[in-house]
Amino acid sequence: MHEMSLMESVRDIVEDAARAHGARRVTTVRLRIGALSTVDAGALRFCFDVVMHDGVAEGAALEIETEPGAAWCWDCQVAVAVLAEGAGCPTCGGHRLQVTGGTDMRVKDIDLATEPELPTCA
Amino acid sequence: MCVTCGCESGTVAHDHDHDHDHDHDHDHGAATTPGERGFGVLRPAVTRTVSLEQDLLAKNDRYAAGNRARFAESSVLALNLVSSPGSGKTTLLVETLRALTGRHPVAVIEGDQQTRLDADRIAATGAPVVQLNTGKGCHLDAHQVGHALASLAMPAGGVLFIENVGNLVCPASFDLGEAHKVVVLSVTEGDDKPLKYPDMFRAADLCLITKSDLLPYVPFDAARAADNARLVHPGLECLTLSSTTHQGFDAWLAWLERELHACTARAAPFAAHEARA
User: Fold this and answer.
1) Among residues B95, B117, B155, B272, which is most buried (max CB within 10 A)?
2) Binary contact (B55, A74; C-beta < 8 A)
3) Cβ of A22 under 8 Å from any chain B Cβ?
4) A91 has a chain B CB within 8 A of its CB
């Protein structure tokens, strides 16, 4: 369940950013997770509420964008799109693939709610 | 937030009784929205999007880079041994340490959820060892390994073995600063395991197929296991051995010698630079 420790990294990144921007609340957290990365998006969702509890991002929405998998097929000698882990080359079906994309695991951006300026009634 | 009564939210039906005086006008009973009349008593929080683009493993990777620099300074070949529980990592280590004793400096970091049973087995060989207990954690991370290094004499010019928590999934993601991950697969497991747990076999630079003395008694096909490992990691080097009979052990020791030599060769320019500095 390494998704739990990865989600703790998300929390650290989000809380540091919220502090740096003087935000009182984080309303949305957007992640980009590669189709060929070593995490499961479903497990990340499961951990999100638990890990964000009592923090600046408690109750925030989690949006996960999938980065498509990409590889170089040594047999076809072309760059190919790989749909999922173990799927093989879509052209020849082979597995001599050098993964070139789709392994990303990052916090893309967050929506912050900042304290409004106090109204002046002059 | 309303600055007088403290009520929350930006668009609220403002219909409660006020027992305080206002020195300005605003409509009661109607929704108050931001910007209305130039200033609203109810002010919503300002929401904005901040781009971060930060890797989830960035923090771990920074610690790993620190560990890697420390290994390079002392010409230490650091190996991260990963496998399912029960593949024979500790037995492999005990026999490897015995074979290396007197030839190269060695040290071991043991990772387990609980107990120092493995560290005790390693200590019996005379090798310096630190036990890390991850508690609820399913893997070692670079920060934990950095702490372990503080209480372990660096085996300068030799090998540091890091035995990870028995888990064929999670440790694949965490760089500890090692030169190589070595994945251990025993013949009492399935030869289809590389297909079922591809991340680890992709992350590793060497696959050791252990307990080969049991091959006559199990349906495991070592050649098929190696083929499956190479399906997920083309060109992956695979060695079959037994820590009990030492069959195939020489090839593993030769691999270690080769990597130690490469590690020392890499460190030589670094050492020369240090000497000049």
Assistant:
1) B155
2) no
3) no
4) no
Q: Read off φ and ψ for residue B261, nearest 5 degrees.
A: -60, -45
Question: Within a 10 A sphere around the Cβ of B30, how many other Cβ atoms?
Answer: 11
What CATH number labels A2-67+102-113? 3.30.2320.50
Q: How far apart, in whole angstroms, are the C-alpha atoms of residue A4 and residue A20?
A: 24
Cα angle value B232/B233/B239 (rounded, 5°)? 115
Amino acid at A27: T
Encode B11-28: b = buried (16+ Cβ within 10 Å), e = exposed.
eeebeeeeeeeeeeeeee
Residues 42-71 of A with CB under 8 A from B: none
Q: pLDDT tens digits, residue range B207-242?
A: 999 999 999 999 999 999 999 999 889 899 999 999
The 3-state DSSP class for residue B146 equals: helix
CA distance A113 to A42: 26
Is the C-alpha dihedral spanning B270, B271, B272, B277 positive or negative?
A: positive
Asked whether A82 and A108 are in contact (CB, 8 A), the reply is no
Task: Say if CB A80 and CB A91 are below 8 A apart.
Answer: yes
According to DSSP H, which parts of chain B are helical?
58-73, 89-100, 117-123, 142-150, 193-196, 198-203, 222-232, 249-276
What residues in B contact A100, CB-CB < 8 Å? none
Residue of B nearest to A121 (CA): B24
Q: What is the ipTM of this complex?
A: 0.83
Contact B167, B85 (CB under 8 A): yes
Q: Tell me which chain A residues have a C-beta less than 8 angstroms from the C-beta of B54.
A: 13, 106-107
Structure tokens at B99: 């074979």
Would you call A92 an interface residue with chain B, using a CB distance cutoff of 8 Å?
A: no
Residues B184 and B82: their CA atoms lie apart, in Å, by 6
Q: Where are the domains of chain A?
A: 2-67+102-113
Within its chain, how far is the Cα of B263 from the centroid? 21
Judging by beta carbons within 10 Å of its beta carbon (0-12, 13-18, 19+), is residue A27 exposed, middle or buried? Answer: middle
How far apart CA B133 and CA B240 sit, in angstroms, is 30
Name the residue among A29, A90, A101 with its Cα closest to residue A65.
A29
